Amino acid sequence: MDMAKLQELANEFAKDIKTQHDLNDFSKILTKLMVETALNAELTEHLGYETHQNSPEDVKNARHGTTKKPSNTQLNSAALIFRHHLHIVLGCSFIEFLKNIYRVS
Predict the structure, then answer these.
(1) Is residue 96 within 8 Å of 83, Cβ to Cβ?
(2) pLDDT tens digits for range 3-12
């Protein structure tokens, strides 16, 4: 890092900071930008290519990629199966089980 450039930038930014509120706002913006930059750099390193480049053919991970998501009917049937198995294991519904544990009427 070039300390002279950093000092020059700090002096330039300091000209616009007049109050504690200005300093807090500036700190939030600067922190947000640093975190986003670091995360993007980490993602670029992990995936092996830059943000707006096409991914190599052998790469399965992708930025803004699409994956098949379960439909509502698949989720509903999975929930029903889970509730059925839970009822078998507990011997009652989950709500009744919680009422028994916490002695709620």
Answers:
(1) no
(2) 898 888 888 8
